[in-house]
Batch of 3 targets.
Target 1
Amino acid sequence: MTKTDLQVKAFIAMAEALGEAIKGLGSVPSGHLFAHVMGVMSLETYEKIINLLISAGHVKKSGHVLTWIGN
């Protein structure tokens, strides 16, 4: 497995974990969620994942609050 393959798998795993966290909480202030994961991912990666979840229709962002709306 190449480094790129491992990076893609890690990104997908992080996206699934953040999605599950938001789903389990129902809604959460984005800053609070990032505070819990900042030791394992950069702010840039976090924002990319949140934007992906939003564009996929799983999460809605109102102000700074993320709310699970998807499947």
Note: The chain is about 60% helix and 15% strand.
Target 2
Amino acid sequence: MDSFANAPKSLGEVRSDRSKDSADWTPRDVLIAMLREIDSGTLEVSTLVCVFKIKSSDDPRVGFRMASPDMFEAMGTLELGKDRMLFESRG
């Protein structure tokens, strides 16, 4: 698939939209939803920082991927994102 612009919403995404609970969708659902927004032109992204925890029962590890003009913009984006997560999760 070259474009996700017309990709349908997953059941998890619909469930999360209704419940406003991030536990209702998978990391893959999140990525596809964001690709849909980028490919359809509704979201114009200049910097992207993805942080993830790898499933492992004996050694949980955290990793990241980033697309950014430089590390400082990526770190600023990450910090602002953390602030927004805290503010929006307070209800």
Note: The chain has two domains: 1-45, 47-91.
Target 3
Amino acid sequence: MKIESLPSKIYSSIFLQDGAVDLRKATIDLILREAHLDVERSHPQFSAQCHPLGFFACRWLLEERHTLRLHLWSKDFTWAQEPGWEIHDHLFSFQ
């Protein structure tokens, strides 16, 4: 897999369990970069939303049909649906 972008670099590091990348720093850099870029200059396959369960969801579509997803929670987020319906299941497993 070619590492051409920061989302791809983070994904590869997690997938390959490669400790060479400081995931904390790379993730912070990625979020800061996206926060400071306008839509036209942002990663072309980036999307973000305020999820109804009360977290902020970021998603980067990567080459080879892979996706990097980042979910951020804060007690300050106020957009959670009522009732919460927090208990749910996924059709897939993830780490």
Note: The two ends are 20 Å apart (CA to CA).
